[in-house]
């Protein structure tokens, strides 16, 4: 089967009814990069920069970060790479960055919160990204955003770094794209403001599911209790893509959901046209979409989500649809 998927590498990701789907992959280390060619992904939709920090024994210096990002862009050979700023804290701890004991680390001092409280750390990272992408496109996104004002603060810091780079005569990126991850439910009630502020939004469905259903993603006792393909979560995801369409803001999804053909199918059915997944999932997901009639699925799925009396699990309906339609 792997061979079969390999054969799809160069095939354009068009659904049976002609919808163009953007398939990107997630990465975090140099060893992931060869997969960009092997999988046939169009780019890296999520580059987890914290991995470089997690495998290091001391805080990587600006130059080390710069060299690393430069190598990533070089290996990507023109395919777009979306760098996510540090997402540490919670379950991702850095031994050399002493954090205090937290009762609820998932809700604690992590990701963008930590970066905003350590502006030196954030500015160093932004500077390394700016320098590494001189003359190229730079795509930056921020993890765990809760309020739109956080984005404005980071944008100001970024602006300062840009001014600094140009003042000392360094070449700037040719194009800058600034985005936010949607992982915290509070952002669902700021969608229009959010989309006014960014060039793109990427749904982190792992964390968004954890927070909206109040289930610890790492606790097996509860993590399987609710379904990502249940009505509540699919309705949330649909509200996001509708806001994207309304605001003409590009929306993508980079959580685990995108890696499973059945849930990827559901995402296309509710309107997603761009997803980022683990590299090995690109082949299977492409095979699924080539055979998919999206309009037909959408009609079924929207009816199921609008039906407040519906009792049949949506997962079951999706399995039936997939079976009936090959
Ligand atoms: C997510 O939360 O869905 C996500 C992609 O980020 P991470 O898994 O790195 O938390
Ligand atoms: Mg996350």
Question: Strand order, biggest sheet?
Answer: 7-6-5-4-3-2-1-8
Largest sheet: 8 strands, parallel
Number of distinct helices: 15
Low-pLDDT runs: none
Count all strands and give the number. Answer: 8
What is the element string, with H for helices and E for strands? HEHEHHEHHEHEHEHHHEHEHHH
Q: What level of helicity do the residues show? A: 40-55%
Mean pLDDT across all residues, rounded? 96
Strand-residue proportion: 5-15%
Overall SS class: alpha/beta
For the termini, the CA-CA separation is 17 Å
- Name the ligand types: phosphoenolpyruvate, magnesium ion
- Shape from CA axes? globular
Query: What would you report as the Rg, rounded to the nearest angstrom?
Result: 20 Å
Structure characterization notes:
With 326 residues, the chain is α/β, with parallel strands linked by helices. Helices cover 46% and strands 13% of the residues. The protein has 15 helices and 8 strands. It has helices at residues 2-6, 34-39, 50-54, 62-76, 111-117, 119-132, 148-167, 191-197, 205-213, 220-223, 231-247, 261-269, 282-290, 294-306, 314-324; strands at 22-27, 44-48, 81-84, 137-142, 175-182, 200-203, 250-253, 274-277. An 8-stranded parallel beta sheet has the order 7-6-5-4-3-2-1-8. Helix 12 (261-269) packs across helix 14 and helix 14 (294-306) runs antiparallel to helix 15. The longest helix has 20 residues, at 148-167. It is globular, with a radius of gyration of 20 Å. It binds phosphoenolpyruvate and magnesium ion. Phosphoenolpyruvate (PEP) is lined by residues 46, 48, 87, 183, 204-207, 254-255. It is found in: Cytoplasm. This is phosphoenolpyruvate--protein phosphotransferase.
């Amino acid at each position: 089967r792997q061979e079969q998927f390999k054969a799809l590498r160069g095939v354009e990701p068009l659904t049976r009814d002609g919808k163009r789907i953007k398939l990107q992959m997630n990465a975090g280390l140099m060893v992931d990069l060869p997969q960009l060619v092997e999988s046939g992904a169009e780019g890296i939709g999520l580059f987890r920069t914290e991995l470089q920090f997690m495998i290091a024994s001391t805080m990587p210096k600006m130059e080390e970060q710069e060299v690393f990002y430069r190598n990533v862009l070089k290996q990507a050979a023109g395919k777009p790479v979306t760098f996510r700023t540090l997402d540490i804290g919670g379950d991702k701890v850095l031994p050399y960055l002493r954090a205090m004991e937290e009762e609820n680390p998932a809700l604690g001092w992590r990701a963008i919160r930590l970066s905003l409280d350590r502006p030196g750390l954030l500015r160093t990272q932004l500077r390394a990204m700016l320098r590494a992408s001189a003359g190229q496109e730079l795509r930056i996104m921020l993890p765990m955003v809760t309020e739109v004002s956080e984005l404005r603060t980071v944008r100001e810091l970024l602006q300062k770094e840009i001014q600094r780079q140009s003042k000392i005569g360094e070449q700037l990126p040719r194009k800058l794209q600034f985005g936010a991850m949607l992982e915290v439910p509070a952002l669902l009630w700021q969608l229009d403001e959010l989309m006014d502020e960014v060039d793109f939004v990427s749904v982190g469905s792992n964390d968004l599911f954890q927070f909206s259903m109040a289930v610890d993603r790492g606790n097996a006792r509860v993590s399987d209790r609710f379904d990502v393909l249940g009505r509540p979560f699919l309705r949330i995801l649909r509200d996001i893509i509708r806001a994207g369409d309304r605001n003409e803001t590009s929306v993508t999804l980079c959580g685990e959901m995108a890696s499973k053909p059945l849930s990827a199918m559901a995402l296309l059915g509710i309107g997603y046209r761009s997803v980022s997944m683990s590299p090995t999932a690109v082949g299977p997901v492409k095979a699924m979409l080539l055979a998919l009639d999206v309009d037909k699925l959408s009609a079924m799925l929207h009816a199921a989500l609008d039906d407040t009396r519906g009792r049949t699990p949506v997962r079951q309906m999706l399995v039936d649809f997939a079976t009936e339609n090959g």
